[in-house]
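Notebook B, p. 112. Complex prediction, attempt 2.
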Amino acid sequence: MDWKSAFARARRGLREERRLYLVAVSSLSVAFLCLAVALLFMQNLGEFGQRWGQSNHLSVYLADDAAANDVAQLRVVLEGLTEVEHVERVSSEQARSEFMAQSTMHDDLSSLPADVFPASLEIELANGTPVQRLEGLAQRLGSFRAVAEVETYSSFFERLDSLLRAGRGLAMGLALLVSLCVLAVVGNTIRLAVARRTREIEVMKLCGATDAFVRRPFVLEGAFQGSMSAFLALALLTLAFLLLRDRADGMLTALTGTRLLFLSPLAMVGLLVGGALAGAIGSALSLRRYLVV
Amino acid sequence: MVRPFPFFRAGVRADPDAAQRPILELSGVSKYFQRDLPTLRGVDITVQRGEFVFVTGASGAGKSTLLSLIYRKHTVDEGHIFFCGKDIARLTSRSIPFLRRNLGVVFQDFKVINHWTVFENVAVALEILAMPRRLVRARVAEALERVGLAGRGGETTENLSGGEQQRVAVARAIVTEPALILADEPTGNLDSHLAIDILTLFEEINETGTTVLFATHDHSLIAKRDHRLISIEDGRAVEARRGLSSWPGSGLHALVG
């Protein structure tokens, strides 16, 4: 294997076809940017899912005629459970004022009496509490005399979970589509370069070059194109991330309580290596029919 | 004859008797591009080492096809082609590059790469053999001197005349010191003076011991030299004795005028 010669020929090929490769790298960078954005979206969606994807909260609404003694006993029992982190009692008055503070229809609802809002026990569970355990706890709490209703928010989280799954699927589909685009663009670019260099290939084959000898510089050129495009896309994404992070962070924190994350080092290395591989494979595939001399 | 490169694929043992055999033997070779219409039919030709052989025939007679079967652009449909005693008609596609390293092929359209320098065009044949850079420089300089282009290695090939471009192609063909040179209408794109120059160049190469198979339909060129002549007529090879003076006739007189 004469890699030194292959590198020299690849360098010459890149120099001679620099305009074509410049156009190809620009198009590929856009494709890789889409891929990187899709990955970034997936990563942040994953983080959001981890933070919000399951319920850690239970609201136990107390019966109107619940005796203070029963409620106190219930609270003691709950605080004794390992999966319960914190229990807070919210009175009807507190519930009303919290609602009024958050409501935009302050004036219209100000006449509502306090007993419209039931008193409750707000329970924070430990992270990672299984859904079955949560459901079991809700069922047992429902049998207490002082409890009118238990809200687990499970339907909301089921909907959120299916939304997150759809988002992940969409991002993965986009990633796959972009990968195919990358292969096609690299393949077509190399095919154009090869079409302009068929005489070169023919001469080499007639002089006794093996297919591997002819293929090697083109594969190197393809790998260079792919990795260069991925690098440019990452550079653009980093720049955009740095410029928009503060604004996006504020918005995300307000909406979801999470912060915007950048791609992990593994994802970045994967993008660079994947770019090089896609370029190399695209080149090798597009060369096949030109090797028959 | 110096043949410094391993014959066919690495690992294949050299046949010690090969040196005693003719360099090229075609036996019952047929090639069909169209069914029931053979381009070549039952061609039998034997070429001895160091011979200079003209292959002639009308346009489309099958001269180029005959040569392309030897450098394995195409495969024979019937028959055998023995090169140095080895049946190259049955070579696997992986062995073809190793066959071509022992051949020099020159074409009518030169097949030089215009944006490369003269040196690069010639050196490519040696780079394929992974020859050290220093040796490549020495061998290319020697080949360029033999074809009359000494000291012009740095020039871009597209700036050369047609005759000079063909000399570059000849230098590329001889730089590896092949056992056999196949010239497919090498003077077809050149005027008569340049054609004689190129023919003379091939004769000089032949004088050093290299076997030359020179395909041409240029009758004036054939008439000027007294080399063995094979004509392709109606898909068959018609062998003539040396020289036009002893030409056997049967249509070939008309052919060569």
